[in-house]
Write a structure and sequence with these properties.
Layout (H helix, E strand, L loop, with lengths): L1 H16 L14 E11 L2 E11 L4 E8 L9 E7 L4 H14 L5 E6 L2 E10 L2 E10 L2 E4 L3 E2 H7 L7
Amino acid sequence: MKKRHLFAFLLGLMTLDTYSQINPIEEKDKEFEETLIGEIRQAGAFRAKCVRYVSKEKDTTYTIFFDNAKYQTISDIKYFSFNETGGDFEKLYSIIKNNMESKERKDVEIPLKNGKLILGFERMMGVSSMQMKWYSNGILSYSSYMTLNQYKKLFGKKEDL
């Protein structure tokens, strides 16, 4: 009986010792500015989004997040990033657009800092689609197939929607 009382007393002392303080970060304190470029959802479920980060030194980084289609029962969000060094964002968009509008099917490999991005183009029943494959640390992750209009929405393009 005495052991139970001692244990309860010690447990009470330990909970008094543990505390935390919440320090919210305000917009002016952030090291970068985050802007959502575009997002793709299908039936409310997340498929992909593109975010632009601008640091205080005015360095721009684009990050594309996508739901890993390798798994059907769990949500596994993967991403790849690249720095803007003079039109890289527009160059990636034009590669996607030109290959989806052409008749031939081919894969385009783009080496990035932390892995390799493979753009796989398909044409099924007259509709062009593309799948992003991200190979990093020996693991292959891939998005579901998306159409050109979905990629226009992802890249924040308003023309021809």
